[in-house]
Structures are given as structure tokens and as C-alpha cells.
Amino acid sequence: MKNILDAPFMAEMIRTATEMYRHGWDERNSGNISLMLDEKEIAGCPDTENVLRTVPTGFTVPELDGKVFLVTGTGKYFKNVQYAPEVNLGIVRLRDRGRQADLLWGLSDGGLLTSEFPAHMMSHAARLETDPLNRVVMHSHPANLLAMTFVHTLDERAFTRTLWQMHTESLLVFPEGVGVLPWMLCGTNEIGEATAEKMKTTRLVVWGLHGIYGAGRNLDETFGLIEAAEKAAEIYLKTAHLPRINTITDEQLHRLEQRFGIKAREGYLD
Ligand SMILES: [Zn+2]
After folding, report:
1. How far is the CA of 75 from the centre of ligand 1 (A)?
2. Would the N or C end of the chain have less CB density within 10 A of its end CB?
């Protein structure tokens, strides 16, 4: 591979950012994605052989020492990723117990890594403990999920149960449920640590009055997780003000478990 822009992971990253923008999840410069790369995915590519500059991360994640990530840049618009990937994206390798990020490619206008880099890296470390195949962390602002956090209790069990009840396939897509955090200051190590703690047991973490974090083994899976939760939230908002005549019962959710060989989070079904 001579040009990093020809790499399959790059095409997939660009397509995902573009699609997230088109879904209305990432207005202006919002949203961020990080994709962990295998060394062999960039091996032999002259574009990534040198360290262009080094950025202190402001936190420690020894588990990720030496890991390489393709990430979105701070202040960058998802809408523009497809037209100028080398400006809006960057490839970094962590070192010094995760305290330094060596930029190998991208952010060619001198830009910096996503302001949510702490939450991303801490979430990667947490997910890898649970699932060694996890590769992606994604943050966005889907309107229905965000709206739901204004009118629904933020209790995790209740929030999860509502999403499961709004669409038959919700339970199949996220049987472990969703984590929910109250409003917290974004961009900080504190919200990063709180998100990572939730990520030990779930791939979806709702940030109350802000948005959602998703994690997964690839970009499609992670995008699909957020897409499925967002659809359930949309159905909730379309029906929340109307009399509920029908609902998906716990007995029916148990039948889904049996039919599809999945297990709902312990204690979430009656
Ligand atoms: Zn955000």
C-alpha cells in the first residue's frame, strides 16, 4: 500500500463519518470516532513511517501503550471528512503509558485530536478488558435519544427497558442494555472515567442531555448499535404522549431470548 488513503479502513471511516452526518447525528463539529488499527494495516506505508509531532494526552492508559488509532480531529466537521480526510482525521500511536500520542499521519492543518480523546481511550481500554476484539468507539448526538433524556427517567434499568419495549429487535441488538450518565462536563478525564466504567458492561452509554457513546468490533457494528437505539427512542417519542394500548411484554422478551440464544442483562426482565 503506497497511499494511506487507499487503505480499506480509511474508506470505511470516511463512509461512516459521512453517514453519521447525513443521519443528523453530528451537527457542526460534533461527534468523534476512534478506530484501533492493527500494526499490519499500516505496515509498509510510507505515509505513516515518521512521527510528525507529539501531543501530550493528559491521562494514563498503560493498557493501550503502543496501540495505533485513526481518530477524528477536534473542531472538525464530519460533513467535510470525505472531501479532506488528511485534514479532518489523524493516525496516532500511543506511548509512554498512553501519556503521549505520536501523530503519524493527518491533521495536516496543525489540528489536534478530538477533545473527547480521554473518553475514547479510556473506553477502548475498558472494552478491551471485556471484549479483546473491540476496535471502535463512537460519539454522536442523535436527536431522539437526546430528547428522550429530557422526558424519561435516567435510571439505567428503566431506560433500557423502555428501549427494549419500543422495538422487537432492540433486545437482540443490545441485550446488555444501555448505561446512562447524568449531565457531566464533556471533554474531561472525569466523564471519560465514568464512561469507561459503564463500558465494562455495555457497549452503549447515554450521556444525559448530551448524546451517546457506542463501542464495537467494527464501524458497522458500532454505527448499527447507535442506529438501533436511536430508532427505539424515536418510537418512544412518537408514542409517549399517546395512550399505550399495546406493549412488548417481559414474557415476549423472554421468548426472544430463547429463540435467538441471547441473554438480557441480569435483573432487567421480570
Ligand atoms: Zn458531544
Report:
1. 11
2. C
Q: Ligand 1 (ion): which residues have CB within 5 A?
A: 211
Residue reference for cell 494526552: 57
What spacing in Å lies between the alpha carbon of 234 and ligand 1's midpoint? 19
User: Mean pLDDT, to the nearest integer, of 190-212?
Assistant: 96
Choosing from 41, 116, 230, 234, the catalytic residue is 116
Q: What's the whole-number mean pLDDT along residues 221-236?
A: 98
Query: 156 an active-site residue?
Result: no
Query: What is the CA(247)–ligand 1 centre distance, in A?
Result: 32
- Mode of pairing for the β-strands spanning 178-181 and 204-207: parallel
Place of cell 436527536: 143
Q: How many Cβ atoms from other residues are within 10 Å of residue 197's Cβ? A: 15
Three-state DSSP string of the chain: CCCHHHCHHHHHHHHHHHHHHHCCCCCCCCCEEEEEECHHHHCCCHHHCCCCEEEECCCCCHHHCCCEEEEEECCCCHHHHCCCHHHHEEEEEEECCCCEEEEEEECCCCCCECCCHHHHHHHHHHHHHHCCCCCEEEEECCHHHHHHHHHCCCCHHHHHHHHHHHCCCHHHHCCCCEEEECCCCCCCHHHHHHHHHHHCCCCEEEECCCEEEEEECCHHHHHHHHHHHHHHHHHHHHHCCCCCCCCCCHHHHHHHHHHHCCCCCCCCCC
Cα 187 to middle of ligand 1, angstroms: 9
Residue 44: pLDDT band with limits 50, 70, 90: confident
Q: What is the pTM of this model?
A: 0.95
**Average pLDDT in the 201-222 region?**
98
CA–centroid distance, residue 25 to ligand 1 (Å) = 10
